[in-house]
Amino acid sequence: MHKRHPHHMRLALATATAAALTGGLLTFATVTATAADSTAVPQADFNGDGIGDVATSAHGAYVSGHKQAGQIVALYGSATGVSSAKRSTISQNTSGVPGTAEAGDAFGAETAYADFNNDGYDDLAVASPGEKVGTDTNGGGLAILWGSSSGLTGKGITVADPAASTHDYWGKNLAAGDFDGDGRADLAVGSSTSTIYVYKGGFSTSGTSGGRTTIKPPIQSGTNDYPYGPLKLTAGDVNGDGRTDLIVDGFENETDYGWNTNYFVPGSASGLKVASAQKLKPGTVTGIGDINGDGYGDIVSGAGWDSTDDDGTPVPESADGGKVNITFGSASGPAGTTGITQNTGNVPGTSEKGDTFGWDLDLGDVNGDGFQDLVVSAPFEDISGVAETGLVTVLYGSASGVNVSSGAQSFAQSTAGVPGTDEKGDRFGIDAKLDDVTGDGKADLLVGSYENDANGSVTYLPSNGSVITTSGSRSLAPSASGLATTGYPQFGALFAD
Question: How far apart, in whole angstroms, are the C-alpha atoms of residue 299 and residue 288?
Fold first, then answer.
């Protein structure tokens, strides 16, 4: 796979529905990851055992011979973390799952978790943005799979597209949160248009919700060939009022030359308020978490592209090798912003063109000190002459924000104790997740990669209570996780938000 400019690649793929946008043709060759959203719960618990679980996709997987039909794998936490032995592997051919596995469906290309039916088990919303609907090749489909004492079993419902004839890629963006503060999980759904559908909490087993509203942020709509609309939806409480806010990433207008814009849309007693939206720093991947422990969610956006485009055009709010912008939360919403690159303080590595530092990120409390810590990936990082082998960096939160002076960690497959070796194109860190999957209250690290020519893998690196460690680490392969390795399954390329 030859290296393309990471900015264009990221924006073309940020819909989490495609890998190549060439000549107006959208395909599902190698789907990129998106950052994990912050919802009302720190991690999913699909089986209700009190230990965090993780869902990851293999949206490029063959199912019953159908190319890129897609699957998801739920990895259930335990005292020793996650493994391929304790998991559920689900496709649209699994009994009870709405739909049928077909070529190009990309089942699992976007996911979001929450307890949507209020039964005490987290559920998983799963999109199939390439689903054919009538004569519409990429009409898209959306299902919710119910959690249970056995985890995700495949039982679920369809969330029908309310405007199937007017947009494509239904479900290409998802975010779960309590936007109106009524104690029930809501679901925001995007498509190729700028209209976002918000389903109020309380889904029934027949597929009805507690109601539906729409919002229309100031972003560009698109078409089947150019599916703009929201590029990413991220949920979290920025202003500390107990209602989830939404960050909407999209193209502001056609003169932007593709540079994205993020908008903060606050939650309220009546739901999301577009009239109060605020424009933020750009960045195609976003997470929300309280880094400085002040009770407000901080907005972290990754701008993994370089400071200039291929033709020398300056790129806004970026740096060579990529950049992460942190906008601190406050009672009035977004406040001051600070930027971090690999040249900041003692952050590991050096900013080099094409590193894509900020390609993916997530937040979680690794050491239990009450400050959210940050993992940032640079999957295109070259190490010791090995191209695009990838690197992830863990930065620790403090009362003054991210500590860039001391304590930072970096991990590659050449790091002692990390499974595997640095290989060309592995792109270790194509997605990354900080979740407590051992039940000890400390976030562990999971890293996705394009191991073995985009077959993919998930690497588990546990917290020892103080830092991320390689002791007890393991690599989960697609074949051991119930997936066919024909084609490019991309196992681990997208963790559920």
Answer: 5
Question: Tokens in use for 88?
Answer: 């559920």
Question: Token match 């863990």: residue?
Answer: 394
Angle at 206 between CA 205 and CA 212, to 5 degrees: 100
Bridge partners, residue 126, by sequence? 111, 143
Q: How far apart are CA 452 and CA 491, in angstroms?
A: 11
Q: How far apart are CA 415 and CA 15, in angstroms?
A: 32
Q: Quick count: other Cβ atoms within 10 Å of Cβ 346? A: 10
Question: Is the CB of residue 375 less than 8 Å from the CB of residue 408?
Answer: no
C-alpha to C-alpha distance for 159 and 366, rounded to whole angstroms: 35
Is the pLDDT at 121 greater than 80, yes or no?
A: yes
pLDDT in tens, 353-409: 999 999 999 999 999 999 999 999 999 999 999 999 999 999 999 999 999 999 999
Residue 74, SS3? strand
The tokens for 452 are: 């073995």
Q: Mapping DSSP to helix (H, G, I), strand (E, B) and coil, where does residue 117 land?
A: coil
Using CB atoms within 10 A of its CB, is residue 56 exposed (0-12), middle (13-18) or buried (19+)? buried
Count other C-beta atoms under 10 Å from residue 279's C-beta.
Answer: 12
Q: Distance between CA 279 and CA 119 in Å, rounded? A: 37
Q: How confident is the model at residue 260 (pLDDT cuts 50, 70, 90)?
A: confident
**CA torsion angle 79 80 86 90 (round to 10):** 90
- Contact, 129 vs 138, CB < 8 A? yes
What does the alpha-carbon distance between residue 24 and residue 333 come to, in Å, rounded to a whole number? Answer: 38
End-to-end CA distance of the chain: 27
Radius of gyration of the chain (CA): 20
The one-letter amino acid code at 173 reads: N
235: which residues sit within 8 A by CB, 6+ positions away? 37, 38, 39, 175, 176, 177, 179, 188, 244, 245, 246, 247, 288, 497
Q: How is residue 270 written in tokens?
A: 């009546």
Q: Which residue type sits at 115?
A: D
Q: What is the pLDDT of residues 204-229, one digit of tens each?
A: 988 888 899 999 999 989 877 788 89
Q: How many residues does the chain have?
A: 497
Tokens 């199912």 identify what position? 63
Nearest to 100 by CA among 149, 147, 133: 133
Quote the CA–CA distance of 458 and 114 in Å, as a whole number: 22
Residue at 486: amino acid letter: T
3-class secondary-structure state, position 334 = coil
d(CA 376, CA 374) in angstroms, rounded, equals 6
Q: Could you give the CA distance from residue 177 to residue 37 in angstroms, rounded to a whole number?
A: 9
Both tokens assigned to 171: 């479900």
Q: How many CB atoms lie within 10 A of CB 135?
A: 6
In terms of Cβ atoms closer than 10 Å to its own Cβ (0-12, 13-18, 19+), residue 25 is: exposed
The H or E element that residue 61 is part of is: none
